[in-house]
């Protein structure tokens, strides 16, 4: 099976989530990936196999985020308004505030840029 677009995993939501923000962010990530994929197909075709997690609380969020290439675990009910970001199974930063979505999209872009390019050479970090 050959992937054509990165896969986004998002939780369905439950009583632990504080809002629909994680669903909105998931949709924003999907639109971003679809928009960027035509260029990435030329420069970083392996981006089609990218797995991104957008989770709504700390119950399943960190585990799903660690299992993805890059993932974010948004705060749920009663949790601090901070969102840890994971890349390749390791927590790399914590995002918070009004720029959280844009910063996460920038991290996805940077992650793809570090993937091996079409020539096979790894892009500089």
Under the CATH scheme, which architecture would be assigned? 2-Layer Sandwich
The rounded distance between the terminal residues' Cα atoms is: 30 Å
Q: Write down the CATH topology.
A: Sulfite Reductase Hemoprotein, domain 1
Oligomer: single chain
How many extended strands? 5
Question: What's the level 1 CATH class?
Answer: Alpha Beta
Compact summary:
The chain contains three helices and five strands; from the N terminus they run βαβαβββα. It has 125 residues and is α/β, with parallel strands linked by helices. A five-stranded mixed beta sheet has the order 1-2-3-4-5, sandwiched between helices.
Can you tell me about this structure?
By secondary structure, the protein is an alpha/beta fold. It has a single domain (7-114), classed as Sulfite Reductase Hemoprotein, domain 1. Helices cover 36% and strands 19% of the residues. The protein has helices at 21-43, 61-67, 100-114, and strands at residues 7-10, 51-55, 70-73, 83-87, 90-95. Strands 1-2-3-4-5 form a five-stranded mixed sheet, with helices on both faces. The model has no long low-confidence stretch (mean pLDDT 85).
């Amino acid at each position: 099976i050959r992937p054509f677009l990165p896969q986004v995993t998002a939780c369905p939501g439950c009583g632990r989530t504080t809002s629909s923000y994680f669903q909105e962010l998931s949709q924003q990530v999907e639109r971003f990936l679809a928009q960027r994929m035509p260029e990435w197909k030329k420069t970083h075709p392996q981006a089609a196999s990218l797995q991104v997690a957008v989770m709504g609380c700390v119950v399943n969020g960190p585990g799903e985020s660690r299992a993805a290439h890059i993932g974010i675990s948004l705060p749920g009910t009663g949790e601090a308004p901070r969102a840890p970001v994971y890349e390749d199974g390791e927590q790399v930063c914590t995002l918070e505030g009004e720029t959280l979505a844009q910063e996460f999209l920038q991290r996805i872009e940077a992650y793809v840029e570090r993937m091996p390019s079409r020539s096979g050479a790894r892009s500089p970090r």
